[in-house]
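Anyone up for a design puzzle?
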């Protein structure tokens, strides 16, 4: 199977931990970009973690997002291994949208 570009996107309509992307079995993913957009006119914060089994690793902890702006979280590509999960959490519901651009290598 060829390498495939995909995107993963979520509208953080709650303050619950939300899965952004789960890497498939027998796949390695290279996350090229994670954009976070604030669209309510209010500053907020986001937390981004990567989960490997029961282990949770913090990538961004309460990262500030200014009102009505979009920021790029990554300055370099992020490798996600098979079965690892990227999760995002907003401090406030209905303010943040997240879009990740990913290359899946099988």
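Challenge accepted. My sequence:
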């Amino acid at each position: 199977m060829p390498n495939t570009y995909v995107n993963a996107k979520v509208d953080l309509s709650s303050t619950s931990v939300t899965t952004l992307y789960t890497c498939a079995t027998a796949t390695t993913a290279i996350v090229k970009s994670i954009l976070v957009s604030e669209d309510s006119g209010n500053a907020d914060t986001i937390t981004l973690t990567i989960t490997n089994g029961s282990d949770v690793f913090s990538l961004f902890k309460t990262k500030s997002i200014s009102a009505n702006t979009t920021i790029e979280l990554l300055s370099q590509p992020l490798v996600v291994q098979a079965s690892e999960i990227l999760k995002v959490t907003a401090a406030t519901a209905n303010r943040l949208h997240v879009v990740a651009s990913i290359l899946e290598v099988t």
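A detail worth pointing out: The two ends are 7 Å apart (CA to CA).
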